[in-house]
Amino acid sequence: xxxxxxxxxxxxxxxxxxxxxxxxxxxxxxxxxxxxxxxxxxxxxxxxxxxxxxxxxxxxxxxxxxxxxxxxxxxxxxxxxxxxxxxxxxxxxxxxxxxxxxxxxxxxxxxxxxxxxxxxxxxxxxxxxxxxxxxxxxxxxxxxxxxxxxxxxxxxxxxxxxxxxxxxxxxxxxxxxxxxxxxxxxxxxxxxxxxxxxxxxxxxxxxxxxxxxxxxxxxxxxxxxxxxxxxxxxxxxxxxxxxxxxxxxxxxxxxxxxxxxxxxxxxxxxxxxxxxxxxxxxxxxxxxxxxxxxxxxxxxxxxxxxxxxxxxxxxxxxxxxxxxxxxxxxxxxxxxxxxxxxxxxxxxxxxxxxxxxxxxxxxxxxxxxxxxxxxxxxxxxxxxxxxxxxxxxxxxxxxxxxxxxxxxxxxxxxxxxxxxxxxxxxxxxxxxxxxxxxxxxxxxxxxxxxxxxxxxxxxxxxxxxxxxxxxxxxxxxxxxxxxxxxxxxxxxxxxxxxxxxxxxxxxxxxxxxxxxxxxxxxxxxxxxxxxxxxxxxxxxxxxxxxxxx
Length: 549
Fold this sequence. Notes:
alpha+beta, five-stranded antiparallel beta sheet, 18 helices, 21 strands, six-stranded mixed beta sheet, single chain
């Protein structure tokens, strides 16, 4: 090995060369201001001669270095030399033997293909931090060398990096634990089980993004509102980290609370917008809140800067929800508005966060268009469709953003199953004959639906009380609607007055005020809401016996 070129760069060599130059200067040059001879001699005395690197015995140096050194020669890599450190680590090795048999530790590390590559290319190669059979980790550097007879060999130089490797593994283990904790936190803030509406089939999935500990703020929820209606929500808090997850948890809790008020979607977003500003003025979030009413066959929704809902009808045609879309939550000062999109029997709707469709160096509309194509060909249960959309979008465990997807289907029921989902409605014109007509209508419908006698009587009583309440406190137009599902009987009365009833305690001398109290006592649940365009709806529901489900 030729060290001559390197020796010129050594500090001691440079000083020695400078001293020699000074001692050979001519008297004329010294008189011109250069260092005097006496000074040069003094410097020469202080810096004793340093031997050139070429004069050092290479074998003696290699024997003393703490790194592992082995010299292999020839195409079959025969052992020419191993130093003391190598022998201490793996034992002595017979010289002249083929390395593949005599150095099994290198074979286990997969080093021989690298040795062949170094010999062919004439370039050094490094294999970082590999754990050897002695339990320690080494970084191997293989350097081509030229032998005296013109043959080629390889110098194997292994540095012990065990401490660094163990420290790196401890760091990786710590990061894995932090990530597992963060993902557990994120998942604990999401619904542990989706509510199951009578008229919809739903499924959802969440994929945490990346491999770092920072979690995102994606969330989704399904909320049964009563009266057969269902609220669906999906949102995304901007940014990552525990703070984003905490804001997400607060918003999700608030959505469930506001949903119980049975407000229109745009009013729910209006309340969320103010709350988001109070939680953290520096955090903003996107959100879609939608309500499904099986009697209307559509989704009523409002969007705060979120991606559009996609709906696939039973023929495979995909429709994208149009405006209105307001700014994200937390920006304030914006009046949100509700829109509608058809969701007829046989349709499938998809709500999703931007991690499913947004990619670097790609337009967002291209990602949404690709999702539309995937949805057009997706069939099966909501969970199957959910998984298929995630796969078609190329979401992998190391995906760089969180992904949340909510899929809902409004199934088209036929045959015996269709008999379990029935509707009947009666327009009430008012007058003294309205209440008797409503009771007779309810009795006839419940009899035709073959309800047991006790449930029949409770249903007729509830319908009578709701109609009487509407006749006394409401205004035309009035309608009585009865609906059965596979799980419950729903009775609903609508009228043109927007004053919502409330349950109160009637005094013994009061001649009214007991209707809602009676309904609340005999029914499984009851509620009221304002209807679009003015007016209100008051409803109650009864759970069906288990054998009828």
